[in-house]
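Field: COMPLEX_INPUT
Field: COMPONENT_COUNT = two
Field: RESIDUE_TOTAL = 872
Field: MODE = joint
Values follow.
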Amino acid sequence: MAKIGLKWLFCTIYRTFVSNFLKMIAEIITIGDELLIGQVVDTNSAWLGKILSDNGIRVRQIISISDDREHILMTLNERVGRVELILITGGLGPTKDDITKSVLCEFFDTSLVLNHAALEKIEEFFISRALPMTHINSQQAMLPEACIPIPNENGTARGMWFEKDGTIIISMPGVPFEMKPMVSNYVIPEIKKRFDLPVILHKTILTHGIGESFLSDLVETWEMSIDKRIKVAYLPQPGVVRVRLSCTGNSQEEVDSLLGKAEFDFIQIAGKYVFGFDDENLENILFHRLKECNKTLSVAESCTGGYLSHLITSIPGSSSIYKGGVVAYSNEVKRTFLGVNEETLQKYGAVSEQTVHEMAEGIRNRMETDFGIGISGIAGPDGGTTEKPVGTVCIAVSAKEKLIVKTFNFGHLRDNNIRRAALSAIYLLLEQLVKD
Amino acid sequence: MAKIGLKWLFCTIYRTFVSNFLKMIAEIITIGDELLIGQVVDTNSAWLGKILSDNGIRVRQIISISDDREHILMTLNERVGRVELILITGGLGPTKDDITKSVLCEFFDTSLVLNHAALEKIEEFFISRALPMTHINSQQAMLPEACIPIPNENGTARGMWFEKDGTIIISMPGVPFEMKPMVSNYVIPEIKKRFDLPVILHKTILTHGIGESFLSDLVETWEMSIDKRIKVAYLPQPGVVRVRLSCTGNSQEEVDSLLGKAEFDFIQIAGKYVFGFDDENLENILFHRLKECNKTLSVAESCTGGYLSHLITSIPGSSSIYKGGVVAYSNEVKRTFLGVNEETLQKYGAVSEQTVHEMAEGIRNRMETDFGIGISGIAGPDGGTTEKPVGTVCIAVSAKEKLIVKTFNFGHLRDNNIRRAALSAIYLLLEQLVKD
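Field: COMPLEX_OUTPUT
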């Protein structure tokens, strides 16, 4: 306990020290019953957290509350005056359940007035889409007198900028593609004009092939020795542990240099597990590696059902490395589209190293690419046997004079199996590219 | 303003009335810096919100805070004693950044003691995976004396059940596949043993082909006339507006009958826009319709890059209706795998109604299915022209003696274009199935 006590003391001193740099603290409030009953996952908060953090604004807390007048008022009363910035999303739609605007009027003791510019924009919006405008659409041009309206490039509900007791309060629609341009193009630039923000940078090191606790043990001395302005966190995912370093400072140069040194030292110790950094993901890394060495890929999928192709083609420009794929769900398609032998399927089964070998080779030859991937497995929930239980997945990577084939067992969850199979196929090919 | 005032008064009376039924109020606290800087989207809260809500427990608020001792303590101090249930996730990992357990010891004024049963389980866990056990793993068997430990089927960190001032406080790991079984198999059953929970039911009506404000106008009289215990919310998504009805009551029968009547009346007015209910989605509905009429499908995708196949094959049992697909990213693959004519590609281009017609027919004939879908478009961000800007997508649905071809323009966001193109293809086929 003494050790823990000391750690707390240290943390408190450390935080006091660090907080000198932090000039702007923000909170995010998302409004909507759909968030509380789990009908919608709150992706807005993560997006807002990232853009604020990237711009030197620290997010202290995210709160999701219901479309309930008293609860909204209470939450605002508790928070306004305590932090510099509050971003609110949700509850600005045209329908009756959307009450945020009225509640804000009550909170800021102001009333709704017709905003002529907003009305014109709404009219234009409907004309451009050749849709009739209804009464409730025109009501969206009624805005609180006390706010500065924020333009909405992709919809009819304006954002609203209020200020009270030293807090900027910004209310925006919950629809992501309406909210995001408001923040990027208006809110962040306005705040940057008015505040001198510190630099907060995060560096994430991506590792594969080692569990969270083993990695933490391996780099223990590193963690003790790095600059105390850097905070370390471990974020495990299926097959991947991400190590995040966060550092706050007065200048880009200072923070860059601190993080650069810590990263360098980490790689000296655990480099063999590191496969990438920050927002990189496996499909992105594969894309860049293939592009660098001017190689092409085709894919034959059974249990992953198109997911591997989807991951690769999510990347803009992927057509330069990816020619195409076949989703061979039935054995017939495995034979006719990939040239898998009937005897192989009969003797070894669709989920076998022999079958994926022929799938990978078949797609590579027929699509005339440098690499071919073949995947076949039992994603579940049904279809498992004692010999080949749900989660068994065979993967082959075929190149002109090389072949890798491997069998995995991922577990019993269909979605997980699909995802892990696709990522493991990318790993196998990446390993091959590194060896070459 | 008088109207708004009256509305508030009404809402307050209504809520007081409804709240008589609500016996258990919960709050969710998720802990982790990764949530605040937007590195991880908080999907746990939505999952928890849904399972609590389905079991008659109302979630009042979701709060995400950082791995910070003072902030965790303050949040607990503010909330314990005010609600019946607090669920906490995150911060229980074996690494140094995970501090939840120590902070809970401080808050409940208790200390860590070795839990022998937990230690045995951890040892078993590592033996079964043939991994060595490290010191920090064994520390996970140290648990606060004041808690009831909750078994973890999929990991080494136990959950912890505390009680204080009339509030049950439950702390669990943030890793979803560890947390979820704890809640489903332990927390919910334990709470149901001890509390007599009311019935809260949600019914969601899924509509397509009408915007949020037009739909709201159309059903205005319905909304005014339904039972006042039912709350209505509109949730727009690209191409879909979901209408959620929430109702609280004393018995399943009462709530079922209220919701059933409201749903029936809604369909009388807006039935032609309704395509499904609740957690149904388009791919699920397509799967069931095809299965009912014993028809099969194959898919030829260009710009959606495997995403349509992925949506369909995410459904367990989809192999009964889906034979396979070709991701034809290059023109060469369109020719050799689908039989698209070189002249068609030359004359009309890869993104044309003529090309998707041949793609859909080609895949249907070659995979010998009842329906074939062909999709080609410009997902972006590059590749657009004045005539065919980014977001232009052509889709064809081919059946033996029928063909539907349609051109869409979805916008400028790659991810959105891929998603909307895949969903629109499913719509087109569903429309065809309804007509047949």
